[in-house]
Amino acid sequence: MYKSEEIARRIQQVLRSPETVGPEDDPQQVFVILNELADDYSDACKRVNEQLRHAKEYASVGNTGEAIRFIELFHVREDYENLTLDSQQERWKLFCQEFGLAVPVPLEEDLYNETKYLYESYEPIKTTLSKFRLLSLERGPLKERLALLRKLATLDMGNTIWDEMAAKLEKARDEEIEAEFRALPKTKESFSAANELLKELSPMAGRVTEAPESTVKKIRGFIDGARHEKQVDVLQNTVSKCSTPIERGIGRRSNALWPTGCGSPVKCSRTRSLSG
Question: Which residues of 168-207 are buried (b: 16+ CB within 10 A; e: fewer)?
């Protein structure tokens, strides 16, 4: 922290008990101490204002994550809150004017308030990022880590680091997909598993790189063949289920052509008499 806590503590002590600054019989020494303290406070205010403006520049181009990282790296919010002197900044300013000390620049409250909005908008990113870091530490599945990276890229638009990381993970995951496909039994039962692998290679999955064409062709070729085989099985099953009732129906209709009790033209006495 940029000495802000110590500076604020000393200023508040001066405002409470000016006589404790230095030896009463040495006004020159007291002035030197106060002058140094006023300079430190003035510099600290300028520095915090500059850091707030710098964070705003990151945020203005959509790089919220980098703005938050900058604010936390330099403890900007903590320094700002320390330098408000518990709402006694105006009193210190009047003190400096009275004794001819460096008058501090006002702290830029509007910029500070904007950081509150940054943190609110960053909360979903922070949650997703925490999950991603946890998966990375645990060496979680590439598929899950990629999904979180793509979500981060959507939440933190403007920060290219997520797409760069996703491109590296996609390359590694593509190699896994190739290996997983090779390990699949090449039967129609593997249709669903192969289809899930193909979905990961689709642009609709939110990829930032192009999927390897050779892998896509292999998986798509297998899926087309398995789909055709399944269609043939369905057709054969349909025909098999329908064939027996049809044959029975034909038999019933054929028998109905003959008189009751006549199993066949040969056995039918009525037919014999007609022919005789």
Answer: ebbeebbeebbebbeeeeeebebbeebeebbebbeeeeeb
Counting Cβ atoms within 10 Å, is residue 152 exposed (0-12), middle (13-18) or buried (19+)? buried
Which of 149 and 112 is assigned the larger pLDDT? 112
What radius of gyration, in Å, describes the C-alpha atoms of the chain? 41
How far CA 254 is from CA of 57, 249, 251, 258, 263, in Å, comes to 91, 9, 5, 8, 11
Query: Looking at 30-74, which runs of residues are DSSP E strands?
Result: none
Which amino acid appears at position 157 of this protein? M
Q: What is the pLDDT of residues 159-176, one digit of tens each?
A: 778 888 889 899 999 999
Judged on CB neighbours under 10 Å (0-12, 13-18, 19+), 258 is: middle
Global pTM value: 0.51
Task: Judge whether 87 and 24 are in contact, CB under 8 Å.
Answer: no
Q: How far is CA 183 from CA 176, 177, 187, in A?
A: 11, 10, 12
Q: What's the CA gap between 180 and 262, in Å, rounded?
A: 67
Cβ within 8 Å of residue 170, ≥6 positions away:
146, 207, 208, 209
Distance CA 161, CA 62 (A): 13
3-state secondary structure of 74: coil
CB 207 within 8 A of CB 170: yes
